[in-house]
């Protein structure tokens, strides 16, 4: 299936920035965040619980659309050869994994989420959408994990990289089982994969990092670094600064600088390029691409124009 036609430069981000910063109605978004007098009692597990409730509430699968544009934005996913491995972090209902599986018949996708119910629904959606191709389902493997709290399971990390990581005591890679309760055994031999069993060629962080509390982001990105093979790539897409969604939040929904919490307890952070650059460089990544995607769309119901801002990035683990 070909990637959908997609445009990412419908307007200039700098023009939107000037408009927002000159509008008094949006001034509170720009102010330094003043934490409440009482310390927050929110525990890390509360963030996972909020997203679990979110996915259960939207379990029909209609809330998300298949992200077919990914194959155009990240053609590396299609061009890589046999036994390529992708780790999809925060897979939700499979809207990212599905076009990847369809676009490359040799690729294997490991998909994690903090909700076991969500993973079950993702498996159902992949099964239903690819019923004519039995090989697709056998290349989709799920496991329940909140990478920002417990890290990734040991079998994901390349053995060589993991040993070096543990020697430096920088890894929090953990033992996490698949959703079916067993540890996964790779089907490709070390000779076929070009590396020891376990390492992944790609990590996709698609609208996932923004849901992680900002203070846990550096550790979360280091976890992604730890499971990549040398030369592997992390493909990133998330909410950008001054996106329409950000401007809809009220002042009392701020829980940090450029960080907000919805009424259901789910979080959203809005990134500028410098923040992303610092986070990924701090984890050891090499920046390949980093830019704003500015897309103008029209709400069919009220014919209102919406200006969406996302951050697109590609980062590589050094050889």
TrEMBL record:
The keyword Lipoprotein does not apply. One of its GO terms (biological process) is methylation. InterPro entries: METTL2/6/8-like, SAM-dependent_MTases_sf. It holds the Pfam family Methyltransf_23. Gene3D superfamilies: Vaccinia Virus protein VP39. Keywords: Methyltransferase, Transferase. SUPFAM superfamilies: S-adenosyl-L-methionine-dependent methyltransferases. S-adenosyl-L-methionine-dependent methyltransferase. This is tRNA N(3)-methylcytidine methyltransferase. It comes from Carpinus fangiana. The lineage of its organism: Eukaryota, Viridiplantae, Streptophyta, Embryophyta, Tracheophyta.
């Amino acid at each position: 299936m070909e990637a959908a036609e997609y445009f990412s430069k419908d307007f200039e981000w700098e023009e939107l920035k000037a408009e927002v910063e000159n509008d008094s109605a949006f001034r509170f978004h720009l102010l330094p965040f003043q934490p409440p007098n009482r310390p927050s009692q929110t525990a890390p597990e509360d963030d996972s619980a909020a997203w679990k409730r979110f996915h259960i509430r939207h379990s029909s699968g209609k809330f998300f659309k298949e992200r077919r544009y990914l194959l155009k934005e990240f053609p590396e996913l299609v061009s890589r050869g046999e036994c390529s491995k992708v780790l999809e972090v925060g897979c939700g209902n499979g809207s990212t994994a599905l076009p990847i599986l369809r676009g490359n018949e040799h690729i294997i996708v490991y998909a994690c989420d903090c909700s076991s119910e969500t993973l079950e629904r993702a498996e159902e959606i992949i099964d239903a959408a690819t019923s004519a191709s039995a090989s697709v389902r056998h290349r989709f493997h799920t496991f329940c994990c909140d990478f920002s709290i417990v890290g990734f399971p040991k079998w994901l990390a390349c053995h060589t990289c993991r040993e070096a990581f543990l020697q430096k005591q920088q890894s929090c890679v953990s033992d996490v089982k698949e959703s079916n309760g067993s540890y996964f055994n790779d089907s490709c031999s070390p000779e076929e994969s070009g590396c020891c069993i376990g390492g992944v060629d790609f990590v996709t962080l698609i609208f996932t990092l923004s849901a992680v509390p900002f203070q846990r982001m550096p550790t979360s990105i280091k976890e992604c670094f730890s499971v990549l093979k040398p030369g592997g790539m992390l493909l990133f897409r998330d909410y950008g600064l001054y996106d329409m969604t950000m401007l809809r939040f009220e002042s009392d929904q701020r829980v940090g600088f450029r960080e907000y919490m919805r009424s259901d307890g789910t979080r959203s952070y809005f990134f500028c390029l410098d923040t992303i650059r610092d986070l990924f460089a701090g984890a050891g990544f090499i920046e390949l691409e980093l830019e704003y995607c500015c897309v103008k769309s029209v709400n069919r119901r009220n014919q209102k124009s919406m200006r969406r801002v996302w951050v697109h990035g590609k980062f590589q683990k050094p050889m």
